[in-house]
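Tokens in:
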């Protein structure tokens, strides 16, 4: 439809119908349809503020008022919600309105769209059909849905309700609204099958964990630099290096959160901020190796040092092939320099395990870091495999 100022009820109903149609299509961020959705929302809101100048009620309050006004029972509401159980859940605040419910209530009962969208649009999770069952299964098995004891079929059917509870588990955390998946995330990946909803769920879980572990030390902006990262790399010399790294970062006002990746996320690590402005470095440990732990950790800290502005999220699949953008190239370079200075690397000839141990001793770092660097740069992933520290990281964070 043509976007214009709404002047009467006919134009208002046309705009509302177009709004619901756009919401059904779940337009991609930055598309013309997404822009139209934003503009339509503003136009409808402006008209309804003028047409209904009193404070708008909440959706449930408006529905109950209309039921009382028209003498409708809960049984009479079944056509609008789909079942008697869903009528009860909506009226008791246990289920959010779907787009289809909002359309019927607006078109057939005349409840203003802005009332139905009020508080619900930003929080409304994607529809049940949008959630991949393997993702929901993994979330349930890892305790994302506190209190859920039903079957997978029940979880699939009521995904909207449980995702809504999960999203609001910790009030005030900075997370992406799942309804339209508007996000400022910078993603390093070339896998077109990445599931955006699974990424959102993983990010929100990380925020939940960080909120449960408040830090006593404030973060000092600008404190993470090459010297800071090299001092941290020195902790890798000990077998308990990953655990010591967590203590080191917490002492400087930085969270280190370990959360296994969800299906179709292909994540190694990420960095973001919590509600108090503390950086959160999150690692999936999908490759449980000492060399991978330290490089991924340094890569995310490089984002803290160079790019993190308090609002952006960086999500990284470090296995992605092909060219990377300037931001990721800068993070790679700083991470590599922090672990093994280029000057030291260029003057070292590695031919045997003894050469790796000698460089590691000289730099006071784990031999796994040297072996991992040699493999990446030579492309030979068969040599020095026993030095990579397999299965020696996750065990330090379990429990």
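Residues out:
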């Amino acid at each position: 439809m043509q976007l214009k100022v709404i002047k009467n009820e006919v134009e208002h109903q046309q705009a509302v119908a177009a709004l619901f149609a756009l919401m059904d299509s779940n337009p991609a961020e930055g598309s013309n349809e997404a822009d139209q959705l934003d503009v339509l929302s503003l136009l409808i809101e402006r008209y309804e503020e003028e047409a209904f100048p009193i404070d708008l009620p909440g959706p449930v309050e408006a529905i109950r008022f209309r039921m009382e006004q028209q003498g409708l029972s809960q049984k009479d509401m079944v056509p609008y919600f789909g079942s008697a159980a869903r009528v009860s859940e909506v009226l008791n605040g246990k289920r959010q309105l779907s787009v289809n419910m909002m359309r019927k209530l607006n078109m057939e009962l005349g409840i203003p769209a802005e009332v139905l969208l009020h508080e619900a649009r930003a929080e409304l999770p994607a529809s049940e059909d949008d959630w991949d069952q393997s993702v929901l299964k993994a979330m349930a098995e890892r305790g994302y849905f506190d209190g859920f004891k039903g079957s997978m079929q029940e979880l699939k059917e009521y995904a909207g309700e449980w995702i809504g509870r999960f999203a609001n588990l910790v009030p005030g955390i900075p997370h992406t609204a799942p309804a339209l998946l508007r996000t400022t995330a910078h993603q390093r990946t070339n896998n077109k099958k990445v599931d955006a909803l699974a990424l959102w769920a993983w990010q929100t879980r990380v925020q939940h964990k960080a909120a449960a572990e408040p830090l006593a030390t404030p973060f000092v902006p600008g404190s993470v630099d090459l010297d800071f990262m090299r001092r941290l790399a020195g902790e890798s010399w000990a077998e308990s290096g990953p655990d010591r790294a967590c203590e080191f970062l917490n002492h400087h006002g930085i969270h280190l959160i370990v959360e296994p990746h969800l299906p179709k996320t292909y994540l190694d690590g990420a960095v973001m901020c919590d509600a108090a402005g503390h950086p959160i470095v999150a690692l999936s440990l999908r490759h449980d190796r000492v060399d991978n732990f330290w490089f991924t950790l340094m890569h995310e800290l490089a984002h803290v040092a160079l790019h993190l502005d308090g609002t952006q999220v960086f999500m990284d699949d470090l296995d992605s092939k092909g060219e990377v953008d300037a931001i990721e190239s800068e993070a790679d370079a700083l991470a590599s320099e922090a672990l093994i200075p280029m000057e030291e690397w260029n003057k070292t000839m590695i031919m045997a395990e003894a050469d790796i141990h000698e460089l590691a001793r000289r730099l006071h770092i784990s031999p796994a870091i040297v072996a991992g660097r040699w493999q990446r740069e030579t492309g030979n992933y068969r040599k020095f495999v026993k030095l990579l520290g397999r299965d020696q990281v996750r065990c330090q964070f379990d429990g």
